[in-house]
Amino acid sequence: MNLNAFVKGTCDDFCPPKEIKMRATEKLLHFFEMYPPLEYSHIVQKVPVKCFSRSAAGIQTPEAADLRTVGSLSRTVAYLLEYILMDNRKPYHYRYDFIFDRLRSVRQEIVIQNLNEVQTAQLIEPMVMFLSYSSYKLCQSSIDVFDPKICYQHLQECLKKLLCCYDEIEQQHGTHLQNREFFECLYVVFNLGNVEALNRALQLSASVQGELFHKCLSMSLHYASGNLHNSIRAVKQLPPILCGVAMLTLQKIRRELLLRFSSAYHSKMLTVPGAWLANILIYDNVQTLLSDCQYYNIEVNLNARQIKFNKLTFDQTKDVIPPRHETFADAMLPSGQLRSLLRIIFVAHRKCT
Description:
By secondary structure, the protein is an all-alpha fold. It has helices at 17-25, 31-34, 38-41, 70-84, 92-113, 117-137, 148-173, 180-190, 195-203, 211-225, 228-233, 242-264, 274-280, 286-295, 327-332, 335-352, and strands spanning 272-273, 299-301, 306-308.
């Protein structure tokens, strides 16, 4: 393929002038574009950021002036995730929608301009962090403000693109980006027990396999082999972001263990202490465990806080309980923690460029 056929952007702003004029005329500027965060409001009154537009038949190839430079794309991502993400004037789901769309536009330009693997990886790494954090932060939101399937789909796409970049960098330059191990771990945890993810992990070069990687790989192997107890025990040992991503699978593991316990502890007379079971299944409290047991039609004694298992009564037709917030995960994932993690990534990128 002729690389010269790709258009290289020349716009050094967050948004091309042509789009700014059109959207201002049509009154399509977003709240955050008309009323930027306080850190920016004393510099400019408006901060338009290029929005995502779908490709369509008959649409001409964008001109260079309609596309942003690599430096502009990098500054756009940093602005969205360092300032807009932390702007508490609007609820998180409102900020998520705006950032999600603008980051999607950045990804679109990565493809249009055919950026190299290092540039692409440095732009996508913070996007993966944002989508990972948001998938947990908004997991209990109603479908009208957050669609988890769309978020998961884009997170998976970004992760796979990022890993392809890592492979190309290793093949062409014989080196690794500083954050590679963390994102390889994130891919493993997000695809817990998945054969494709495990095959990739097992074939990675030894230089990528640090302590955290082996912990995540062991967790996924335990899950794939059916050793769910060891898999669930590893969840609390994961660092921020990875722990939040693990929450997306936690309810599935709990359901499977409750189903197994329904056979292993089947009895018409004996009961299991709720406190013991809550500890095994890493519940925040016994009451939540008892409520989940009732959902799956497991008999509980609310006063004694005990569970009576019966393999014949477990309702396997019930859907897995959706992901929800857990106290130990919330403690790891305050918004300030995300900002710190993102800044580490941005600083690492500046050192590489």
